[in-house]
Amino acid sequence: MSGELAGTPGITLVGPKGTVETKEGLIIAQRHIHMSPADALKFGVHDGETVKIETEGIRGGIFNNVAIRVTETSALECHLDTEEANAMGLSGSSKVTIVK
User: Could you tell me the domains of the chain?
Assistant: First the structure.
């Protein structure tokens, strides 16, 4: 889960302005949807719940194990791994359906 970094491996980043090394923090974040409490009420979900999301279209399908992250400051947004999104033809403007 993003933000849960304890016990994760570190990484060294090398770029044109130098090098940064971390002791921990290298993760592949779990699929998740950020939303406000009002959105959570609208969709009938709660913080920490795990749902599925479905998308239609020629490459449509279902992603399992999508975490719900509810905070007062969140805007409705789904975060997927780039390769997963590409495999189903999703972009920043795509729509998905939450399946409980």
Answer: 1-29 (no CATH), 31-99 (2.40.40.20)
